[in-house]
Amino acid sequence: MSPRRVPVSRRDRPAKPPLSRDGLVAVALGIMREEGLERVTMRRLASELDTGPASLYVYVRNTAELHGALLDELIAERSPAGGAGSWRDQLIDVLCTYTELLFAYPSLARSVLILRPSGPHYLRLIDTVLGLLHTGGVPPRQAAWGVDILLQHATATAAEQGSRDQAAEADGEYEDLAIAVAEAKSDTYPNLIRVRDELLSGTGEERMRWAFGTLIDGLRAH
Predict the structure, then answer these.
(1) In this structure, what CATH number is given to the domain that contains residue 129?
(2) What is the pTM of this model?
(3) Which residues form the HTH tetR-type domain (predicted)?
(4) Does residue 171 belong to any structural domain of this protein?
(5) 76 within a domain of the structure (yes/no)
(6) Is the domain of 99 the same as that of 54?
(7) What pLDDT, on the 0 to 100 scale, is given for residue 78?
(8) Residue 128 has pLDDT above 50, yes or no
(9) pLDDT, tens only, 183-212
């Protein structure tokens, strides 16, 4: 005769941690860091949180809002702040820090390009940029419109660089371009030859700081 099975109360099972927006974003951030943004799906998050996908939409309306929340968490962890120097140098520092933050997550950068992030830390970033532009004497409308251009350029740079790095690893496209420029003939490409030595010169950081400086100077001039 088989031993009698002793029933186990459901109350003895460990309770699931309560769902929350912060908990959802924390799990999504962990998956993105370990496996990439492409793996951050509502189905995957629901599985990790031991719930159904539909219950997650109480906390985020859609994937776009989730991506915006991920960006806000990244900014909170590495708050872009200006260093020493002039207001212009400080602003370039802030923008470069934000760009470099996104270099590690090119898929998120591509997503942010079509978003309108509205998290508190992203708003603080906007406020910091506006404050530095104000210090530099940039008129209010120029600053208000310019902050959009500056942050879009930062995001696009990160998205493009991430894609370039992946392509270069796979196909050596950068080397192909360098060879093509070196072998170009002056009678066919006279303007290219004129700047050939500078076309691919400079480090990534040097070119990034130059680009932001040029945009900032343009905002002051017009």
Answers:
(1) 1.10.357.10
(2) 0.82
(3) 18-78
(4) yes
(5) no
(6) no
(7) 82
(8) yes
(9) 999 999 999 999 999 988 999 899 999 999
